[in-house]
Amino acid sequence: MSQLLLDVNGLTMRFGGLVAVNGVNLKVKNRQIVSVIGPNGAGKTTVFNCLSGFYIPTEGSVMLKNKQIAGLKDYQISRKGLVRTFQHVRLFQKMTVIENMLVAQHRHLNTNLISGLFKTPNYRRLEQEAMDHAVHWLKEVDLLEFANREAGNLSYGQQRRLEIARCMVTQPELLMLDEPAAGLNPNETKQLDELIIKLRDEHEISILLIEHDMSLVMGISDHIYVIAQGTPLANGTADEIKNNPDVIKAYLGEE
Amino acid sequence: MTTNKFYNAIFAAGITLILACLMIGVKLDTSGTQLAVKGATTAQWTWIGGGIAIVFLSQLFTNQIDALFRMIPKPSISTMLPEEKKMATLKPWLIAGAIVIMVIWPFMVSRGSVDLATLTLIYIMLGLGLNIVVGLAGLLDLGFVAFYAVGAYTYALLSQYFGLSFWVCLPISAGMAALFGFVLGFPVLRLRGDYLAIVTLGFGEIIRILLNNWTEVTGGPSGISGIAKPTLFGLEFTRKAKGGEDAMTFHEYFNLDYSSSYKVIFLYLIAILLVCFVIYVINRLMRMPIGRAWEALREDEIACRSLGLNRTAIKLSAFTLGASTAGFAGAFFSARQGFISPESFIFIESAIILAIVVLGGMGSQYGIILAAIVMTILPELAREFSEYRMLLFGLLMVLMMRWRPDGLIPTKRPHLELKQQ
User: Fold this and answer.
1) Which of A201, B54, B72, B376 has the smallest number of Cβ neighbours within 10 A?
2) Are residues B296 and B227 part of one domain?
3) CATH number, domain containing residue A209
4) Are residues A147 and A217 in the same domain?
């Protein structure tokens, strides 16, 4: 049941002389919520950028379902089922919500120029399927009524949810959320909490999470990794992490 | 604040004085075999004085003038048109009506106007093509004229060396231009913004210089002349048929008297056909996944990459399709002119096409059509101002950008709507 989905070994990223990430190991199993925490500037987002192909890691291996993905291009990685969101919401602001959802399904559509020009049956069918799929996910994140709004006009919380829905229509197996609760009010954070758990339990995907909101992290994570100054500090369940003296020291400083 | 304004106004007036003195006040003239420097006439000096006064006052009272501009109600397109539902049923009829008028119109007016209309249609095609690249995909291309040149020379050379007809060459020209777009696009599309603009600018110049220097093939600066005109199913529009014994001309076949205006009208009708085709294709493209991907890429490249969109392929498709439209226009241009030389493909052409796109409103098809009409007809209308023509043209553009910075008809993208379920 719980197979290894993502296996990261000795991930290192150097920018010139600066070692941003140093020998990080991560394991994500199927249907697991795994969190990466650490003080500001610890290199969490750099880890995400390495995994999603925005950076090519200097050293280390990234195995997705036992296949090496380190060194692949970003769009190739996301096509293999590893999709991410961003710390600052990145939507297509001027496009409608439904269009945002369709762009994400670009590679599932019939992009042949000729069939598009003549609206062949295959083209229409795929377009309709994409539409239905988008509607399904808009329902899941409770945004269906805003389908025809411009994405930029949504509230911040709604934009966050749309970003997650937009990732989900690409049919990922591993969803990476980069500080999804940043800028949300407590009520919205609770909704997000429920959404993440729903994604794991009902849609059977794994989630890798970077978050500063400790109540969210401790409440939902199956496993937590702590990174400080680019190096792995500790890992374990929420309770283990809470009582780990090294972690407390990294967060609060020494006596 | 006010003193600042005052100095600013003095400065602007001074600049105007210097420029006006250099450009209008002093003139080189040939007197006999020698060049002589001539001063301006008194009338011209009064005009210059008036101009300086206008610049001074307009700089001094910018705020008031802006307020005045704001008071003029902007003609809002949406209020002038009937509501959306009515529009949907009316639209096909309006389009059909427009096409019928466009087809009938040339038979009633002079040859010159039809010719000018044909030229306008070429610019519409070019504007629409560049709009894909600049307006939709957001890639600034300053060398668009290169693809226009490739299209034009492809037809000219194929017709000259191999005697291929216009209709055969039309798709080949578009294909060649697309190929050049592809080849250029491949290495440079990782560049963005200003850098891309400079590379494309360079590419435009390379093509022009190549055409200028490759004398054996392109004829160099003297260009290619006597390019065959398009035929109607083999019927020529010349006085006497050129193409062999059984070749017939249009007027012989239909038992008409020869008139050179048939040819002009025929070319105009071909241009209408091509423009309609281009508009249809681009309209479809904008609603297709690829069109959405262009827009998305313009909006946020990083998000696109994270969603599995291959940005190189998407940008390349925009570049290639834009180039092929220019190739289309180029082939038609060389068929219409009958003569082309590198002179027709200088940087200023790229600038004019870009101006059409910007004036019309980036991404807006109606706007671009309107802007192309304005940009080609205005210089003609302003012909009586002779040497001040470009000055007037520049002034108009400054005013336009001040008054409608989003273009004549700002984009209203065809948003995809979810039908109520």
Assistant:
1) B72
2) yes
3) 3.40.50.300
4) no
Q: Is B291 exposed, middle or buried (0-12, 13-18, 19+ CB in 10 A)?
A: buried
If asked whether residues A127 and A239 sit together in one domain, one would say no
- Given a cut of 70, whether residue B85 has pLDDT beyond it is no
Instruction: Name every residue in A having a CB less than 8 A away from some CB of B.
Output: 52, 54, 73-75, 78-79, 83-86, 90-96, 98-100, 102-104, 106-107, 109-111, 113, 116-117, 127, 131, 135, 147-148, 166-167, 170
Domain that holds residue B59: 2-71
Give the best residue of B294, B306, B406 to mutate against chain A (max A CB count within 10 A).
B306
- Tokens representing A110? 């019939």
Question: According to the model, what pLDDT value does residue B1 have?
Answer: 57
Per the structure, the complete domain to which residue A185 belongs is given by 1-81+172-255
pTM of the model: 0.83
Mutation for A interface: B310, B418, B421, most A CBs within 10 A: B418
User: Which ipTM score applies to this complex?
Assistant: 0.88
User: pLDDT at position A174, please?
Assistant: 92
Q: Does B285 touch chain A (CB under 8 A)?
A: yes
Asked, for residue B204, whether it belongs to a domain, the answer is yes
Check which CATH number belongs to the domain holding B194 and give it. Answer: 1.10.3470
Average pLDDT over residues A6-13: 90
Partners of A149 on chain B (C-beta within 8 Å) are: none
**pLDDT per residue over B305-363, tens digit each?**
889 888 888 999 999 999 999 999 999 999 998 889 998 898 888 988 998 888 888 77
